[in-house]
Amino acid sequence: MLMKRFYSTVMFVFLLTGLYSQTITYDDFKGLIPYVSAEKWKSAYKESSKLLKAAEKDTSDLKGIVVYINIFSAAGLVTEGKMSYKELEEKVMPLKGQKVVMPGHRLSSKPGSLNTLSFSISDSTNTAFTSSTNHLGTNILCFEKFYLKEKINPDDFKNAMVRCGGTLEKIEFNPNQSLIWIMRLIVKDAFARKAN
To answer: Are the C-beta atoms of 95 and 142 separated by less than 8 Å?
Structure first.
């Protein structure tokens, strides 16, 4: 009887450990794409939140992408009046300190271009910058600034989709709470690489 209880306890602990150490798979990530593509922000937010809760200890790039989708879709909900700025702050601030990975963007040298990426590389700066909007370009959901860990050569990324990511250091919200732009993401220890 004692041995039976012991095995039951071991199995219970093993199952709990399995539940809380789930990793996000490529199929999990792929399942979110239709919601984001169709700007079904509520579904994208709900499903990405579920994945993040189930994979709290995951540190993979796929989780970083899901973190970004979660933040981006929450900002989309704000633009539709389905989430307040106060709720947005409550939902996304716990994601600070986690890995975040943005979708691929085309490189642009034109200042102020939307949904593109620009580098600022000099002796004193080593950053990348994007502004990500809804499909119509009527709302900027996220400005993103990446402090790159290593010096890069922008010429290495010509004609390529570029993906940046790193540690989400800071989240700033539009102080006017207008819908023109929703938030800024500041990412440290960042990387830039060609998106596959």
So the answer is: no
Return the structure tokens found at 183: 């938030």
Domain boundaries, the chain: 2-194
C-alpha–C-alpha distance, residues 32 and 79, integer Å: 19
- Whole-model pTM: value is 0.87
Query: Is residue 183 within 8 Å of 139, Cβ to Cβ?
Result: no
Q: Which residues contact 5 (CB under 8 A, 6 or more apart)?
A: none
Helix (H) / strand (E) containing 60: none
Question: What letters, b where the CB count within 10 A reaches 16 and e where it falls short, cover 103-130?
Answer: bebebbeeeebebbbbbeeeeeebbbbb
Segment 51-68, tens digit of pLDDT? 999 999 999 999 999 999
How high is the pLDDT of residue 10? 36
